[in-house]
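WARN retry 2 of 3 for item q-0093 after timeout on previous attempt; input resubmitted unchanged.
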Amino acid sequence: MFWKRMNRKTAEYQNEFISKHYDEVESIYRQMRAWKHDYHNHLQAIKAYISSNQIDELLKYCDKLELDLLSIDTLVKTGNIMLDAILNSKISLAKQRKIEINIKAAVPTKLTIADVDLCVLTGNLLDNAMEACVKVSEPSHDIDTDLEFTQPFIRVYIGMKGHQLYICVTNSAYGEIKKSGRRFFSTKKGQHHGYGLVRIDDICDKYSGYCKRNNEPGVFSTEILLPVKA
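OK item q-0093 returned
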C-alpha cells in the first residue's frame, strides 16, 4: 500500500512537472510566432524610413527590433532538442526574476537517457537553483547570516566526459540548506514539495549515476555524472 501511494504521488508530481514545463516552452514559442507574424510589418516600416531618408529614426527602430529579437531568440543550443527547450525556458524565467544566469552546454543529439528523465533532471535542478536565488533577493528575516547580499546567480555546465553525461549547477544560496545525514531537504511548500530532490536521486540511481551536493556560505552546487552512451 505504501509503495503504491508513493508511486501514485510520484506519477502525479511528474505529470504536473512536465505540464508546467510544457507551458513555459509554449510561452517562448508563442513569442517567436508573434514576432514572425509581425515580420512583414517591420519590413514595411524599414522601407518607409529608407524611402523618406529618416536614417536616425531607422537606426532607432532597428535597435528596438534587435532588443525584441534577443528577448525571444534561442539562447542555448546544446545539440539535444529536449535539453534546449528546458534550458531556454529556464533562462527566460531567470531573466524575469532578475537572476544572472550563465549556461554552457553541449551534448550529442541523441542520448540513451530518456528525454523525460533528462527533462525532469535538468528542470528540477534549475527550479531549485531559482528558488534559492529568489531567497537571496528577498531574504527572510528569521534567517541569521553575515553574508552580504549580491546579485543572485546560476551557473550551469553540461557536457560529456567520456561516456558520462556531466551536469553541474551552482547557485546563490541564502543561509544554510536543511540537511539530515547526507540528504538535503527542500524548503518549498505545497503538495509535492521535496519530490524534486527525490526525482533527481531516483534518476541518478536509475542510470547507476553519481550525485554530489555541496553547501558552502552563499553558494550551493550539485554535480551529477550519468554513464550514458551517445
